[in-house]
Amino acid sequence: MxxxxxxxxxxxPLGLAVIAMPASAxxxxxxxLLNTKDEPQNWLMIHRDYDNSRHSSxxxxxxxxxxxxxxxxxxxxxGRSTGGTLRGKEESTPLVDDGYMYVTDTWSRxxxxxxxxxxxxxxxxxxxxxxxxxRTTRGLAMYGNNVFLSTYDARLIALNRDTGEVVWEVQAAxxxxxxxxxxxxxxxxxxxxxxxKTAGGRELLIQGESTGGSLGTRSWIGGFDIKTxxxxxxxxxxxxxxxxxxxxxxxxxxxxxxxxxxxxxxASYDPATNLLYFGTGDAFPTFDPEFRPGDNxxxxxxxxxxxxxxxxxxxxxxxPNEHWDFDTPSPKMLYETTIxxxxxxxxxxxxxxxxxxxxxxxxxxxxxxxxxxxKVTWTKGIxxxxxxxxxxxxxxxxxxxxxxGQRRGKPGQEACPWYNGSPTFFPPTxxxxxxxxxxxxxxxxxxxxxxxxxxxxxxxWVGLRMCCQEQGRGAAHGALxxxxxRTGRIVGKTTYPVPNQSGMLSTDxxxxxxxxxxxxFSAYDADTIKELWSSSLGTPITAPPMTFxxxxxxxxxxxxxGDAGLRGAVLYQPSAFVAVFGLP
Length: 584
Hints:
It is built from four helices and 34 strands. The protein has helices at residues 8-11, 16-19, 30-34, 212-215, and strands spanning 4-7, 55-56, 70-78, 95-97, 100-104, 110-114, 122-128, 141-143, 146-150, 155-160, 166-171, 194-197, 203-208, 220-225, 231-236, 268-270, 275-279, 301-306, 312-317, 333-339, 342-350, 355-360, 366-371, 429-431, 436-450, 469-484, 490-496, 505-507, 511-515, 520-525, 531-536, 546-550, 553-560, 576-582. The longest helix is centred in the first third of the chain and has 5 residues, at 30-34.
């Protein structure tokens, strides 16, 4: 497939003095990625660190100075201006290394800018992979002197950070296999890759397949050689017959072959255990549990995967035989805390089913689940010993859950929370000083009816897009929660008129930042959750903010533009742009 890198000289009439400026930074080594706390001025991976904290120790912009925060400059990155077959949300997090910013848009076009002046972004190069179908891209990875891109047509591409030239490119989709039903044409990537050096010394690019739950793909996680792009290991998130977990697919028409369990957020990584932590998506078809009786492993689960081999070391499933798109793609956060008087190293996440789950990082042992959504009706609660819903029936092939469930041809029942209200692609943040996790999303309920003519179990649906519910939507509003991870209690909350799909940033300036679908970009007091400052960008913000520093001055940046996907919101944005804020 054709690709193109364009230098700044070809695109922008800049002076020779500008062209001669150095456009390089030190190599991104494994040591730098393991110790991002030592470089608060930089943002080297999508969620800032391997713990997926999205927290920065920068504090020049703080609760006292934020009132003076002002827009310093904006610059266009393309986005939806060329059109496309799928509406895309701009969801990318820029990376910054020593004053050079790397960012991608929904069309997987990568751009490098010199932002060292603090006054403007000087474009240095632009790479276009020429994908034909766009949905979204959430970000990039860096390692050595390369920047790494994953595309919606399932390619992995390494680019030279200085020139933008292609170092290697591979088609990473799993090959079509008539026995397993893996359809190469429906595989794609939307989550950002992750670069790691494993305990065994392997240098790998980790990537999850993203389309499973919506396109009938048997999804997977892969580890690729960072120097060549060659496949080192691939682990499917839906077990084949005979593999552990395959007994949880109890149908007689091979539903596992289109089972879903997509992986569309970036993993966290613990070098001490050499484990990667992923969250998986829903089972396919999303709203028709009768098509796929059984618990449907490993959907709606946290997976701990050995980074050297790809072997699943443990798993925890939140919602067996899930009905409502209550999957768990939200980034898994790693931290150490005291729970019930005991020090624990944990992996934790906000789930779409309305609960915050805390698991032992090494073993996967369930520790606790705390309700953060105000209204939860789909279950009577979570068993404090097993972590399963209280109304889970191991003898039942199709779960009923508090009497509210999807059934073919029967009237829809309202279920809370709203399936799109809890974090999916919009990530939370964790402030280890306060031991507070912050998440922004929505509160509400939804209901629907499985279509009268569900999928024909006698047909082979591999590779076909199919939705199986006439989905209704109730009223929903936005919300920001602050949850004390030691107790599971909500210690702060605020609400917004419309649902939030941006994501979070927290800082040592006692602030948390998020964007809004109505175009507002806001800062909140980390203790009171009171809004202290906001600025309107005039277009939906569905990307998470980040922060960096150059010349000893702190800046906060966010990608804006795209389809908010909400009724009454702007549905078209002709150009995406990056907005950079700083103090006078």
